[in-house]
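Fold Annotation — chain and its backbone

Fields — amino acid sequence, structure tokens

___
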Amino acid sequence: MRALLLVNPKATSTNRRSRDVLIRALGAAVDLTVEETGYRGHAAVLASTAGAKGFDAVAVLGGDGTVNEVANGLMADEVRPALIIIPGGSANVLARALGLPNHPIEATGAVLEALRDGRRRTISLGQAIWDLDETLGNGGLPTGSGGSRYFTFCAGLGYDAEVIRAVEGLRSAGYRASPTLYVHTALRHYFMTDRRHPAMTLRRPNFADDRGIFLAIVSNTAPWTYIGNRPVNPTPWAGFDTGLDLIGLQRMGLPAMLKLVRQIVGERSGLPAGKHLVQAHDEAEFTLSAERPVAFQLDGDYLGERERVVFRSIPDALQVLV
């Protein structure tokens, strides 16, 4: 097997020594070519030509943002090699959702077992499509048609995207990504976000519109994210074998938020309960529109502000060695 390994040298949880160890381990099992990414979007460019260059798989060592780039690149490749994930970020949501260890060396061992046994899993992706005349904003990728991008585990409009925007600003100022940074930023930003004037409406075929939404989380799998080792699970029924799930908040007051947090942090199987919640499961397509531009994120990358986004489930999109 020929494999292309794309390494984000700025990955949060790796260093040069650990990268060298796992590169040697992978290189002993496959015909390995290694490329380091040099800029945002570089991994998507490299992955998009991997199949044409004869690679059977594209491995990625990096966080969720780099994995998202590789997934978008593979979707632009007609040959579409298999995906190998070695977690190197702070959350590593997709890798952990697939059952991989949250340590790059241990995950490499699991990947080597999958290679030896020929284990592959086909997963769905989500796709977000927005108006072509809107600006991409910070972090947009030219992958796919115009204003569209695939996501592996989640998308969000509203408060959660505002938090990600704030964290990205802190990281650019030199702060290290960590669960503590996200939690502190979320708490601080809660008192700055608009909690009185909801902007969004959910539109689904064969359903009445759900209006007055402050925050919308769209999930392709569960959990949504992690706080350290604790999963955060607002859409516990989401999975790679079904369509997209959604939870929307029609209240942002402190009692409603605290009640929701108690229901979604930790291992959960039942849906959160509350009259202020809008929920959808196994949806093929729906639209979120807003009365004013709202913050937008995909797989933890802030993508500017949007007034209308169409979400679609793309079944059987990628094969993953896991």
User: Anything to note?
Assistant: The helical segments are 16-29, 42-48, 64-75, 93-97, 104-117, 159-172, 179-190, 254-264. The longest strand covers residues 301-321.
